[in-house]
Amino acid sequence: MLGRFRGSRSQAAPPPGDRRSAGPSTAARTRRHAGHRRRTLPGPGTLAAQVFLLQVVVILLLVAAATSALVLQARHDAETNARQRSLATAQTLAHAPGTAAALRSSDPTPLLQAATVRAKDGADLDFVAVLNTAGTRVADSAPDRVGTRARDVGRALAGETFTDLHRGEPTEAVRAVVPVTDRNGRVVGVVQAGIRVGTLGHLLDRQVPMMVGGATLALALATGGTALVSRRLRRQTHGLDPAEMTRMYEHHDAVLHAVREGVLIVGADGRLLLANDEARRLLDLPPDADRRHVTELDLGPRLTRLLVAGEIASDQVCPAKDRLLAVNTRRTAPYRGAPGLVASFRDTTELQRLSGRAEVARGRLTLLYEAGVRIGTSLDVRHTAEELAEVAVPRLADVVTVELLEAVLEGEEPTGAVHRMRRTAVRGALPDTPLQPVGEQIRFVVADTPMAAALRRGKAVLVPDLHRAEDWRAHDPEGARRVLRSGIHSLITVPLRARGVVLGMVSFWRGGGTPRFEEEDVAVAEELGARAAVAIDNARRYAREHEMAVTLQRSLLPQDLPEQDALEVAWRYLPAQSGVGGDWFDVIPLPGFRVALVVGDVVGHGLHAAVTMGRLRTAVLNFSSLDLPPEELLGHLDEMVGRMDVLGGGDVEGSLVTGATCLYAIYDPVSGCCTVARAGHVAPVVVDPEGQVALPDLPLSPPLGVGGQPFEAGELTLQEGSRLVLFTDGLVEDRRRDIDEGLRMLADAVAGSDRTPEETCRALMETLLPGRPSDDVALLVARTRLLAADHVASWDVPFDAAAVSRVRAEVNRRLEQWQLQDSLFAAELILSELLTNAIRYGAPPVRVRLLLGRTLVCEVSDGSNTSPRPRQATTTDEGGRGLFLVSQFAERWGTRYAAHDKVIWAELNPGGVTEPDPTALLDQLAW
User: Fold this and answer.
1) What is the side-by-side strand order in the sheet with 340-347?
2) pLDDT-above-70 percentage for the chain
3) Which of 227, 383, 594, 761 could pair with 590 in a Cys bridge, judged by C-beta atoms 3.0 to 4.6 Å apart?
4) pTM, entire model
5) How many Å apart are CA 687 and CA 901, to the nearest integer?
6) CB hemisphere CA count around 719 (13 angstroms)
């Protein structure tokens, strides 16, 4: 502004009321200006001189700091370069062919001295030396130091390469020390190379003059620029005469009174010194307000107290008459004025009204945001309705009621009958709300009520004043009077609709001192209802799917374990927090009193996981009927999973069987051997009869469906009374702990020799799963039993048909010892047929074994892999009826294959064999 008002001094008019002459003489003006220039010459106390000195000091400091930084950086760079060159030279010499061999020789000095000198000259280093393992120099670029000992090379003798700043004999230097190793990695010597610190100093001395020269040039340029700036500042403050000062005052005064902001200046004694036009209008000041005390101006208690106290304020809202003013106050003392206070005012009355509306809108947006976060957190229909009521009270309404259709509450699809609903949630901030409680049936049968109208229109209905409205009383006049007496006076009712279907009704009520609903509240209520309807529909559909999944899973999991004598079994299944999943287990009796134990896991939850689990469990049962070894069974299961993915359409989301694992184990109570194969599944835990826990190392194959390589099996020999613990990963792994920690906890929980399988299951559940797990858990604990030795009999049979009668006689004697005379005929017939077929069609060796348990098992094995099959013999055939007779007299029979032979077995009831009807048997044989 100073530059704008500069003009010719000869044309400047004096200010009004000036008693001086309008045209002073040229000589007087010259003397005045000369005196002014003399007063403004730069001196120690002038602003320009102080600014100049301050800038010069700052420049000096910056130049000094920059020069120091450059020197330090140059020294650091030189030292880093020296370390790198020394390290490269030392490593090259240490790893050079022949260095290690020369150090192992009897006199390494002649072999290494020339190479050491060449390395020092080629790398432009100050010294290079080769040391033996005793730290003695055997070669050195300075021959007079050969034979002397080096210091501080112990780290290199230990095999470590390092660089350091060596302080000691013969001189201070930057060096690199590298061990020399032979082919076996043993340290046979050390190479050290380096540059003296004095050499680095000479290199640095060459750079310092250039840095100093640059710094001097920068200082000179900066000082010159600062001088020019200071001269410019002096020139801009010279030449102001009274006319120009008067013009500036007039302009400032015009701005002060024309601005749309009130300004007051109050003296230290509390009297008004200045008030602009806007301040007089806003505060309604009297014409004689100047020099009066602020307490006499009727400004209001709050504003008066603020001005009298002299407090500093920023945008403090104070009422003044019928206005709201935003007040800012500052003291004048820090700005070279007389002690006092400057206050400015802005009229914020309309702004406050807009701010109030904005605050209401912000509150509504916050309510909708909280509704999106808080409604629908549990996937439970009733709880979701309660969350809707909790969110709306008291921020939107004083009382909220929610009614839902019966079908929605039961998880079914809603029907078209929407005039009968069940009250599901009531929440109110008013005491003794006279509305129907939760659980009562609500009917919307009167067409004129707001609820029925909302259902008919499919949108919200507003009743701003219930006292004046008559239609809502038609259904229940007495209940309406109770509602009005309780203070409720306004209503918004909204149908809960999702996917175009009505699920229920929500009503928002206001009472007491709360203002009635307005049109703006309807949009908020409809948005709350829409969000709640989606959440309720999701919860309904989830409840339906969850119920279906639970029903399906219960039908697919074993309802009870089969009877068998080989294992004492206990089990647990615990679904995850989010619902049913794909974990399963099974206990499958096999021929020969063997038992198969199965534990599997399909990753995921819901119907897809449950259905996949059922398919895998059914496949395992079917494959087990073939009596396959564990690794072959998993191979067939893996192939089946691959076919399921292909036939099920791999492009459909959720159709792939991903992450399915399985463990299949067969326990033989005769030998105590347990064969285990696992496809991506965690290994079982074994507890011996003394209570010692072992984690066996068993082969691990990829999960099911991966394919590409055969499965492997491992064998465990279990003592009688051992416990085999099979489980899924949900038992030992969750978000709070990893699987290793879970396995340690499991081992501690199952340790001990006096626990039954049931007690073991209980201890594991209490220790590892005190709450609801985040993943499904399947647990199977089996305690082993061994078949008594006197219940097992075996014979090696010569490969001769004449041996059949002898073996048959021995078998008869053993059956008589077991007091199974009722089974002699059937066992003799079955044994004769099976043994004769083995000798006639099989291969040696032939072996017969009898097992006595719940049933009597007769096994005949031979060395061939050809399985007999029953056929329908005609009347002219001489053979073909043997297996038919076996099937008639045995409870069950079949074939299983081993690694080098096959076994044909038949089971008989030891309590007596039910012999077939002779007439029917002869008729069958006749064909």
Assistant:
1) 272-275, 262-267, 340-347, 323-331, 313-320
2) 80
3) 594
4) 0.52
5) 33
6) 9
